[in-house]
Write a structure and sequence with these properties.
The complex is a heterotrimer of chains A (520), B (285) and C (351). With 520 residues, chain A is of the alpha/beta class. Chain A contains 16 helices and 23 strands. In chain A, the strands form 5 sheets. In chain A, strands 13, 16, 19, 20, 21, 22 and 23 form a 7-stranded mixed beta sheet that branches. A 6-stranded mixed beta sheet of chain A has the order 6-7-8-3-9-10, sandwiched between helices. Chain A has a 4-stranded antiparallel beta sheet with strand order 2-1-4-5, with helices on one face. In chain A, a hairpin with a 2-residue loop joins strand 9 and strand 10. Chain B has a single domain, classed as ABC transporter involved in vitamin B12 uptake, BtuC. In chain B, helix 1 packs antiparallel against helix 10. Chain B is globular and about 55 Å long. In chain C, helix 3 packs antiparallel against helix 10. Chain C contains 13 helices and 2 strands. Chain C is globular, with a radius of gyration of 21 Å. At the B-C interface, helix 4, helix 9, helix 11 and helix 12 of B face helix 6, helix 11 and helix 13 of C.
Chain lengths: 520, 285, 351
């Protein structure tokens, strides 16, 4: 089923999807989607979460089979049954969550599984071939480096080179900019534009970043609720028009945050530094403080040290330097349990693997925060009655939808599980709440609930350290914002003075702040 | 005595290499001791029946291989926990050989003849297997696929690698090598059958794999170290006035010590082990 | 109509018990192949088998033996509840035996009511320490406990050999120790030959069950067994839990050794156990890590073992038949394990 994808004329219709429909139980993911792609263009597909992008992508890459509709490559109808078929048709995909092996080298990750390579790996020849490929598009890669040593942008580059090596000419990129700093984004866009000059056709699938879309696209197709709302040429597209097409109306969801009087400082972090699991510095000399009733937001692209910073503050990671002072006490060397007993609660980003135990009942999950509390045990034996009562109360107060408290946690939906975890943390006289990506992956109703709970908490003078990758969320929730880049706080900015563009460029390392060493 | 050291080293090496390859693909095989003892008995039985030690050797390898395929079916296709499956196979191996072997207790002839310096061809084969394993793992596509499967099967799946096929092959190689090492034990080193003939060497080769940080050449080194310690602990009584029994604990103490050392931060065995080792892989659908 | 395998996510207690029973029955069926190969009528063999294992006088032997196997099974279950594989029960048993007989020599002139409690404590403590070592290594450095516990098994047997040929040698030339002091003998129930330690074992099982169910420590142990990351998040310390569970396990395993020395054989020898510590692994898995189930499972399966032992002299079967029985039982058991993850589905065809 080889279709020659050389000698392509620029502008030629290289891929066409006609009438693609795909249904899943209870939902029509793609409804009569028509889409075409010309050689030499970057045709961006935009749409919100749930608009049907992933489904369409997977169909093009052979991971799903459409219920109706056909795909044509250079005018010829094709049947893409698997990624292998897709590659044979010169379609390659770079996934959002990288599919790389951290302990292997760049070279190994590029060539693995490629039939071109042959039984024995001829390193020299292959590396030369790769070098040629990279030079052609001005990519710089160290082939001997291990993946874990690379930045997010470099890792993405490896994946791109990987599919180029396999001869892909049609590139499907799933949220290519989500883990990149704006600087890396520039580099990527330049590379992509360079590639389109050489007959490549590129389909980036993007959620929100409209400014980026406007800069990179030749054409834009907007998906909404599984249907194509329209396809625009870049000349005809504006930010507002796209937003309207994506959402159906002009909407800006801003959190109504009441003005709360802040109390005294309860958390002071001074000069904190820490290493990550690979013993590479991940947190560099971070200092800040949080007052009662204040939401301190950390904004940043994933992988810039937020997770390590949180773990160090909470007690799951040892710092290499610095102090943490909580309510006047130096807790730098205290265990996570001791910190929790003193009122530092933590809501982890991974609610399933870390925040809860799927096999345990809701009662047993709530006990995770009560087992050290003498009110709920007597001489080492649990007061099951009391814990159960507490669980029932929490479930009702926090609106956790479940049949009863004995059901296993794994029966809860994501939103309800998060509510449970939130309930558990807020039930225990918390003084400070470290909330790591608390609305991540939740449906709109749950997101609203969680945000309201956090605001409720600050009304009760709890301080919140809020980590999010959603820039709008951080901007609307926080009192102070600290953009983090490569383990350092670029600056600490009061919310009134912060705007999207400023923070956006800071988290990509493009702009320095006005920080000095002594800061409040 | 040097001959004995070389032989015991080769026994540990062969079983260790097999397990190394299996673990590189992510499958932990605790039943090595059981497969080794099965190989040992099979080699004796079939050598006796056919009069040809090479057939005995072949049957030992097949025996080990068959058991490992069972382990494979359970752990790879049916997602049974690998430790459980391995233990079951170990106990089965001990049980079956204890029963069948009771008719074969005692010394045997028909061993594999030595060729040079008192060493049999098996010894040289064992040595040759080391660079071969290294080459396959690090210089071939197949080896890269094995290592990818052992690190992250999900990624391997996306790349179109057939995870099951690779794991089955590696587990089978591991089983065959375990059987082979048992045959070496009984057809070269000590042509005696008794219930406890392997005496824990299967377990030692397991710890050797960890000690080698899953690298064939380090495994070679480790095997010789332990081969030496093994013989040393038996012969030492002639040099030192300590009781034999206590001396014989040396290899096992050393194994524990090596595990402690290799797990320390300096060597970081935990970081270097194949990331998917011992975990069941359930493909997303 | 097609029979397919479907992945399952939930499994009920009832289903687990069913799987245990089915696999036991199947292993008995499978074992009949061995009878056939030896030219014996399986039904006849099984009659003798059950008769010897479950009717007097064999029943007394079964109950006596259950003490050991129950202790051993508990010693395996406790750490596995925390996710730790204690394959060193055999070694902890021997350590307990050493402790028991050693202290009996030390306090040779004391009356029973002093010696016996001391022996019990010594067995438990020695067994506990012996298990603590691999437990701590696992907790602190994540060193694979399957290997360390196993190596310790081999080591202790050599230590026993040394003691029996050396300082504690009984009859010259035989690798058997001096017998335990008569005052160190646990009395038996009537003529049955069952030492009172059986109650100790059952009591331990019940105590452990309650411990795991009701106490905070038991909760922590279970949490680690299910989700170590969540346990750490909750502020629990793995090194401490690993050490504690293993120490507890070692204590229980040591008590098995005490029973064997004080209640049964009375001398230390390197072949004191035919491998009970390893059988305990299968018993524990079949009992689904439930200490109360362990009582029943230990009793029934020990009865099988005792029954199997009779086959060697009564039917002239080859030596090693007991090992083979365990082997067949194990292999059938692990084959049925897949039912934990999959269920059979009858596809009624048609669209």
């Amino acid at each position: 089923m080889q279709i020659a994808i050389d000698k392509i004329n620029p502008g030629e219709l290289i891929l066409e999807a006609r009438g693609i429909t795909k249904k899943f139980p209870g939902i029509v993911a793609n409804n009569n989607v028509n889409f075409n792609l010309r050689a030499g263009e970057i045709h961006v597909i935009v749409g919100e979460n749930g608009a049907g992008k992933t489904t369409l992508m997977n169909i093009l890459y052979g991971l799903y089979k459409p219920d109706e509709g056909d795909i044509y490559i250079r005018g010829k109808k094709v049947d893409i049954k698997s990624p292998k078929d897709a590659l044979r048709l010169s379609i390659g995909m770079v996934h959002q969550h990288n599919k790389l092996i951290p302990s292997h080298t760049v070279f190994e990750n590029i060539i693995v599984g490629c039939s071109k390579v042959g039984k024995i790996i001829h390193r020299k020849e292959l590396e030369e071939e790769l070098k040629e490929l990279c030079d052609k598009y001005q990519f710089t890669l160290d082939f001997e480096a291990k993946i874990w040593q690379l930045s997010a942008g470099e890792k993405q580059l490896v994946e791109i080179v990987r599919i180029l090596f396999r001869g892909a000419k049609i590139l499907i990129l799933d949220e290519p900019t989500s883990v990149l700093t704006p600087e890396e984004m520039e580099v990527l866009m330049t590379s992509l534009k360079e590639m389109t000059k050489n007959e490549f056709a590129i389909i980036p699938f993007i959620t929100h970043k409209i400014p980026v879309v406007l800069r990179m696209a030749d054409r834009i197709t907007v998906l909404r609720k599984g249907e194509v709302v329209g396809t625009l040429n870049i000349e005809d597209a504006t930010g507002d028009k796209l937003a309207e097409m994506m959402i159906g109306r002009k909407v800006l969801f801003r959190v109504q945050k009441p003005n709360i009087e802040k109390g005294k400082e309860i958390l002071q972090v001074k000069g904190l530094s820490a290493l990550n699991d690979r013993n590479v510095p991940a947190v560099r000399n971070v200092s800040f403080s949080i007052r009662e009733g204040e939401i301190f937001g950390i904004a940043g692209v994933a992988g810039n040290g937020q997770n390590e910073l949180v773990e160090t503050i909470v007690g799951l990671r040892k710092p290499t330097a610095g102090n943490i002072i909580f309510r006047g006490e130096d807790i730098t060397n205290l265990s996570i349990l001791d910190r929790r007993k003193r009122g530092m609660e933590y809501i982890p980003a991974d609610r399933v693997e870390i925040g809860s135990v799927g096999e345990f009942s809701l009662v047993e999950n709530i006990a995770m925060n009560l087992y050290f509390d003498d009110n709920y045990k007597h001489r080492g034996i649990f007061d099951l009655d009391k814990i159960r009562k507490k669980t029932v109360k929490l479930i009702s107060d926090f609106n956790v939808v479940t049949q009863n408290e004995d059901f296993k946690a794994k029966t809860l939906s994501g939103g309800n599980l998060q509510k449970l975890i939130l309930a558990r943390s807020l039930s225990h006289d918390a003084k400070i709440l470290v909330a790591e990506l608390p609305t991540h992956g939740l449906d709109v109703g749950a997101i609203e609930f969680v945000r309201n709970q956090l605001i409720q908490a600050v009304k009760e003078k709890i301080g919140i350290l809020f980590i999010s990758q959603d820039l709008d969320e951080v901007l609307s929730m926080s009192d102070k914002i600290a953009p983090i880049y490569e383990g350092e706080f670029v600056d600490i900015i009061p919310a009134e003075k912060a705007d999207r563009q400023m923070i956006g460029s800071m988290i990509s390392g493009k702009q320095g702040g006005n920080r000095d060493e002594t800061n409040t | 005595m040097i001959l004995q050291i070389l032989d015991v080293s080769a026994i540990l090496l062969i079983a260790g290499l097999g397990e190394l390859i299996s673990e590189r693909s992510g499958i932990l095989n605790i039943g090595v001791e059981g497969m080794m003892i099965m190989g040992s008995l099979s080699s004796i039985v079939f050598t006796k029946i056919t009069g040809n030690p090479w057939i005995g050797l072949l049957m030992a390898m097949i025996g080990g291989g068959v058991l490992s395929i069972l382990h494979g079916i359970l752990s790879i296709s049916l997602n049974v926990e690998q430790t459980v499956s391995g233990m079951g196979i170990w106990l089965f191996g001990i049980g079956l050989t204890a029963y069948v072997g009771s008719a074969f207790t005692g010394t045997h002839s028909h061993v594999i003849p030595a060729v040079v310096w008192g060493l049999t061809p098996l010894f040289f084969i064992a040595l040759a297997l080391v660079p071969l394993a290294w080459f396959i793992l690090f210089k071939t596509s197949f080896g890269l696929n094995i290592r990818t499967v052992g690190e992250d099967p999900a990624v391997a799946e996306v790349l179109g690698i057939n995870i099951k096929k690779i794991r089955y092959i590696c587990v089978f190689i591991g089983g065959m090598m375990a059987g082979l090492s048992g045959a070496y034990l009984s057809l070269v080193y000590a042509p005696i059958w008794s219930r406890r003939v392997t005496a824990g060497r299967g377990w030692l080769s397991l710890s050797l794999v960890t000690f080698s940080l899953w690298r064939p050449f380090i495994l070679l080194l480790g095997s010789f170290m332990f081969g030496f310690l093994w013989i040393f602990s038996i012969k030492l009584q002639f040099l030192v006035a300590l009781p034999t029994s206590l001396l014989r604990t040396i290899p096992f103490f050393s194994a524990i010590i090596t595990l402690i050392i290799i797990s320390s931060e300096r060597f970081g065995a935990r970081l270097r082990e194949p990331a998917a080792l011992g975990k069941s892989y359930i493909p997303e659908k | 109509m097609r029979l397919t395998l479907e992945r399952r996510h939930i499994i009920t207690q009832r289903e687990l018990v069913m799987i245990a029973i089915i696999s036991t029955v199947c292993s008995l069926l499978a074992f009949s192949i061995v009878f056939l190969e030896a030219g014996i009528n399986p039904i006849y063999a099984y009659i003798i088998f059950f008769d010897h294992g479950f009717t007097t006088p064999g029943l007394y032997n079964t109950i006596q033996r259950t003490t050991i196997l129950l202790f051993d099974t508990l010693a395996f279950i406790i750490p596995l509840t925390a996710g730790i594989w204690n394959l060193g029960v055999e070694g902890q048993f021997y350590m307990g035996a050493i402790g028991a007989i050693g202290t009996s020599y030390l306090f040779a002139n004391m009356p029973s009511y002093i010696i016996i409690p001391i022996m019990i404590i010594a067995s438990a403590v020695l067994g506990g320490i012996y298990a603590l070592i691999p437990g701590y290594l696992k907790g602190k450095m994540f060193i694979n406990e399957t290997l360390t516990t196993l190596f310790l098994n081999y080591i202790v047997i050599f230590i026993v050999m040394y003691l029996c040929r050396g300082p504690w040698m009984g009859v010259h030339g035989l690798p058997i120790s001096k017998p335990v002091v008569p005052a160190g003998r646990v009395p038996q129930i009537g003529d049955t030959g069952i030492p009172y330690t059986i109650f100790l074992a059952i009591g331990a099982a019940i105590a452990i069950y309650i411990f795991l169910k009701k106490t905070v420590l038991g909760y922590k142990i279970k949490l680690f067994g299910h989700n170590p990351s969540a346990a750490r998040y909750a502020g629990m310390n793995f090194a401490r839990i690993a050490s504690m569970t293993m120490f507890l396990a070692g204590m229980v395993g040591g008590l098995a050794g005490f029973h064997q020395i004080s209640g049964v054989i009375g001398t230390l020898r390197h072949d004191l156990s035919p491998g009970w510590g390893y059988y305990a692994i299968v018993f524990g898995l079949i009992a689904n890590l439930n200490p109360i189930s362990a009582i029943i499972v230990s009793f029934v399966l020990t009865g099988f073992l005792v029954g199997t032992e009779s086959l060697y002299p009564r039917l002239g079967m080859r030596f090693g038949v007991v090992d083979l029985f365990i082997g067949v039982f194990c292999i059938v058991f692990i084959c049925f394990q897949f039912l934990r993850n999959y269920r059979f589905k009858l596809d009624r065809g048609g669209r």
